[in-house]
Design brief:
- The chain is mostly helical and 469 residues long.
- It folds into 2 domains: 4-167 and 234-448, Growth Hormone, Chain: A (Up-down Bundle), CATH 1.20.1250; 178-233.
- It has 17 helices and no strands.
- The radius of gyration is 22 Å and the shape is globular.
Length: 469
Amino acid sequence: MVVLDATIVNIALPSAQRALRMSDANRQWVITAYTLAFGGLLLLGGRISDLVGRRRTFVVGLIGFAVASALGGAATSSGMLFGARALQGAFAAVLAPSALSLLTTTFTDPGERGKAFGIYGALAGSGSAIGFIVGGLLTEYLNWRWCLYVNVPIAVVAVLGALTLLRGRPGNAGARLDVPGAVLGCGGLVAVVYGFSEAQPRGWTDPLVLSLFAAGAAMLTAFVRWQARAPVPLLPPHVVRDRARAGCFLTMLLAVIGMFGLFLFMTYYLQEILGYSPLRTGLAFLPLTAAVVIGSTQVSARLLSHAPPRLLMVPGTVLAAAGLLLLTRLTVVSRYTTEVLPALLLMGLGMGLTFMPVFATATAGVAPRDAGVTSATVNTSQQVGGSIGTALLNTVATTSATAYVAARPRGPADRARVVPEGIVHGYTVAIWWAAAVMLLAGVVAGLMVTARTPGHGSPVKAPEPGSVT
C-alpha cells in the first residue's frame, strides 16, 4: 500500500488536475507532498516504533493512512488534496519501518526468513509498477478518486490481520526520544528531498534549490555529530558503522535511482510516443512485475540461505543495467514486443535478485530495540534514491532533448518530426546515466556487502547492544 501510493496517483494526476482546477505549477505537489513527508519522517517513525511497540505503531499507521486516503479521495480543493497526501506520507513513515521490523523480529530461522523477505522484496520491487496498472484501471473505469479510496479496504483487511495474527511486544517504555536528533535528522532529510523535488521544475542552480541543499547538508552533518554523543541517539552509530549494512543502504539508494529512470521515462514513452492509453501503459509494466516476483520469491528466497548476499545482488544489478542498456536503443518507431519487453524482463529479474537480499541483510543481526530505526534507514535510502533519480534523470533528459531539437531544422514540417525524436533522444541519454548508476550499485554491493551465507537452519542472532560487526 505504501509503495503503491508513490506511483498510483501519477496516472490519475491529469484527471485530478482538471477536476480540482490545479495550475501546472502546483500539480507536482500531489506527488511531492507525499514523498516529502514520507522521506523526511522515516527515521523518526522507525524510532517511534522501537519505543512504543511495533504492532501498535503498525496498526496506528494503517488506520491513519486509510483516513488520510479517504480525505484525499473526497478532496474538494487542491489544498485539501495536498494536505491529505502529506498526511499519507507522515503515516507511511510510521507504517513502513514497523512492517519491515515486524518481519525482522518475527522470522529468525533462515529458511522462513528467506521466504518472508522474498515476498517483501517482491512487493517493494514491483509495487511501483503495480501502482501504474491499478492507477490506469481505476482512472479509466471508475474515477481518479478511487486511486486514493482503494487504500481503505486494503487497510481494513491489514488491521484485522494484524490484530489477529501478530504478537504484540511492548516497546521500550523507559527510553526517551532523541528530540534534537529528530529535528536535525528529519529537517535535513526534508530539505534534501524538497531540494531534489524542486530541482526538476526550477533547475539545479536556482537559489531556492541551492539553499535547500546547503541547509540539508548542514543539518545532516550536525545530525551525524550529535548522534555520536547523544545519550539515546535517534540512529545509533553502530547501525550504520557495520560495513555490510552500510553497503546495503548505499546499494539500495543507487539501485532505486536507476530503477526510477525506467519507470519515469517508460511511462511517458508509452503514452506520448507510442500513444498508449493509461490502462494499456499500466498493463505494459505487468511482465516487469512478474519478473520481480519470480526473482524475489523463486530465486533470491531459495538461494540466500546457500549463497552470500552479494552473489545475488551483483548479478541482479548487472541484469538490471543490461535491461536499461537495451532501452538506450529506443526510437520513435520502436516496438513493444521486440525492444521494450525484453528490457522490462531483465530489469524485473535483476531488481528481484537485488532487493530481497538488501532488505534481509540490512536488517539481519540487529538488536530488537534497533530493528525499527534500521528498517527506517533502508526505507529512507529507497525514498531518497527515488527523489534523486526523478530530479536528476529528468533534468538530464530535458537538457538533452532541448539540445537535440535546437541543433535540427525548425520548419513546421521538421518540427513535427524532430520534437518526438528529441524527446526520445533525451530519454535514451538519461537511461544511459541510469544504467551507469545501476552498475555502480553492483560495484558497491560487491565491495561492501561482505556478509556471509546465513547458517542454514540456525536462527539469526541479535548482537549485544552497542556491538559492532
